[in-house]
Amino acid sequence: MSDHPGNHGDDEHGPVPFMQQLLDNPFLLLFLGVLIPMLLYNLWGVIDILTVPVTK
Amino acid sequence: MSTATTYRTCPRSGLQFEKNAESLMKANAFIGVVWLLIGGILAIGVVLTRWPAVHWLPADKFYMVLTAHGIDMLIFWIIFFEVAVLYFASSTLLRCRLATPRVAWLAFALMLVGSVLNNVTVFRGASSVMMTSYVPMMAEPNFYLGLILFAVGALIACFVFFGTLVVAKREKTYDGSVPLVTFGAITAAIIAVFTISSGAIILIPTWLKSVGIVHEVDALVYRTVWWAFGHSSQQINVAAHISVWYLVAAVAFGAKPMSERVSRMAFLLYILFLQLASAHHLLADPGLSTPWKVVNTSYFMYFAVLASMIHGLTIPGAMEVAQRRKGYTKGLFEWLRKAPWSNPTFSGVFIAIIGFGFLGGISGVMMGTEQLNMIIHNTIYVPGHFHATVVIGTTLTFMALTYYLIPVLFKREMVLPGLAKWQPYLFGFSMYFFCLVMMGAGTLGVERRHWDMAFGGSPLAYEWPGAAYLMMGLVGIAGVAAIGGGAIYILVTVGSLLFGRRLEDGEVSARFVPLPRAAPTVIAQSYGSAGFAAPGTFALARVFLISFVLYYFINWKYLSTLWGLS
Hints:
heterodimer; A: 56 residues; mainly alpha; disordered N terminus; B: 566 residues; Cytochrome C Oxidase, Chain A; 2 domains; 3-stranded antiparallel sheet; 16 helices; 2% strand; globular
């Protein structure tokens, strides 16, 4: 097994991979982390309930 | 750069505490422990009433005590402590000043006032509506107002945390990505923002209904949105305590993550999917469609389960790798036998990891399966599950962290170290047993929350098998033992703060010392993992998976026997 990645003198000037850009942006993560459950859980759930047919 | 603050370098840990952040961490952690004490005292009433042979409190007192116990433990104790963790993971680990300390104190004040207002209202006796407070059963207005004030304060604290990340980035106190523990705290804060927003969406109209401004809150809409608050608040805990596990692995062993990339991806899965597990509370509810139930629980929830299994593999794996480097290489488990078992910070975390995974994790996945959920829905199995996740997982982890923080943050020598050494074992193992017998009783159908499981003296009285009474009796015995373990924690913690020998502050400077690169760089993010350099952990993981499969099979088999279809 090699040493901890942070300890070796690696190249810091390579292109930043997309996933690392995402993981390094807490506000983008915040946006996604609130939006996805708000849509999939809260909004979809409430729409399900509000569209239950009313008995006549 | 602001210089109107100072930075203390702890001589025992090397950690650097900014003055404002340090005071806020102490205040939040201390008030959290006070709520744990109150919740623990209330637990005596709950346990001794559900113990059938004792059946201590009258019904009205029982429901009042249970309401306060649930809120104090699941919300106030844990979120106060988590705010301290957020400030630690941002200001201390990134070695920067805390953003807007006055606003952070405002957040603390709102949380304190809100929590006290809520509890005072509950103890008036007219708000025994349980933590869930389902409408149309109404509490007094201040019950909701207290929760709303607390939630607003916690939300502000989350944004102070995010502001501190911006400060650290702008003032270049670190290089590269944030440390993994901070990334875990970001995950917890993101889940907290969703959780608290959902709470506000449903509790504000409910409060308005309680004061007569709004006339109706739909019961099912309330349940749906409330669980986005009620269950996700426990997901904040999961992200927070897993961050602490990574921290303790580093503190106790000098362990480094087996693969930063994999661990961060696991946290990303939490950010995107963990909150959706709230839906398992509604699997028996009408009105919500099957696609909604299936997508939220049986598909996306499994991404979060995958993430938990990744953390469950990589954290003990990192400990094993660190131990093997020290020469503990004999067989599969010498690294584990030679671990610092007398250090309560380590033993507490390890007992939490095993209990959280085997008891809380497996039972949670079982409950999240729509068909299997029908076996145990609304039974005492459910508190059995969440005591495994929240008490064994989160509370025991926070207790273990406290033992580390007493000399480091509070600058006190721990009193009664011999007692502290045994505390995680007493508390952890009695909670293991408590959860197991609760789940056993729940599998037999014993109701959760109910004052009298037999409905004695009513036309609906039910004769349970003797095993159900036996297990509820064991719930009482294990619960009393766990409360004893919790009392030792309070004794050691509060005793250390009051009577512990004061330790050296360490050097105080007006400038921060920048953080050396701790997180992987661009290229290192695609660096390989430690592979199977942790064979003992891999063996434990196989035991876990076999247990998982067997338990899953047993429950399907049990389900198949409930209706005689063939």
